[in-house]
Amino acid sequence: MLGVQVLLGDAAHSLLNVTHLGTGLALEDCLVLDQLLQQSLTSTESDENSVAKRVADALTLFSSQRVPEMAAAANLCFDVSKTNMYVHTTIAPL
Ligand SMILES: Cc1cc2nc3c(=O)[nH]c(=O)nc-3n(C[C@H](O)[C@H](O)[C@H](O)COP(=O)(O)OP(=O)(O)OC[C@H]3O[C@@H](n4cnc5c(N)ncnc54)[C@H](O)[C@@H]3O)c2cc1C
């Protein structure tokens, strides 16, 4: 498993802070990754290759679960930022 890296939180999906989602999403990344790794390591198979394979599978599953969530969050962020820009534009003349 040497050389495998996992990006979590803002390193994987930094959003504009107007959505106030970043910390929750970063913590959710940790919880999901922890759960998947726990599941992969509690199997009774113990040889090193199968452990490496199960961890690799857990990381693949992590990406397949989190990427769509982050895409949805990014879309929400984009919508909210447009709304905020509109509000700022209309408030500015006051
Ligand atoms: C102005 C502002 C307001 C925000 N408001 C909200 C809010 O209301 N609600 C919300 O949920 N989120 C908010 N966010 C977003 C939230 O802060 C981030 O999404 C969250 O902190 C991401 O956590 P993280 O652990 O991924 O990254 P970070 O909190 O950035 O942690 C990364 C850590 O790694 C350290 N680091 C960096 N490089 C290295 C290195 N080479 N070696 C060792 N350490 C390193 C950094 O010093 C830092 O401590 C806001 C962000 C900003 C900027």
What can you see in these coordinates?
- The structure is a single chain.
- By secondary structure, the chain is an all-alpha fold.
- It has one domain.
- It is built from 3 helices and no strands.
- The longest helix has 44 residues, at 48-91.
- The protein is elongated, with a radius of gyration of 19 Å.
- The mean pLDDT is 82.
Helix and strand topology:
Elements lengths: L8 H5 L8 H20 L6 H44 L3
This protein binds flavin-adenine dinucleotide.
For the report, how would you describe the main beta sheet? none
Number of domain modules: 1
The whole-number mean of residue pLDDT values reads 82
The separation of the N and C termini measures 58 Å
Structural class: mainly alpha
Summarize the structure.
By secondary structure, the chain is mainly alpha-helical.
Provide the descriptors you would attach to this structure in a database record.
mainly alpha; 94 residues; single chain; 3 helices; binds flavin-adenine dinucleotide
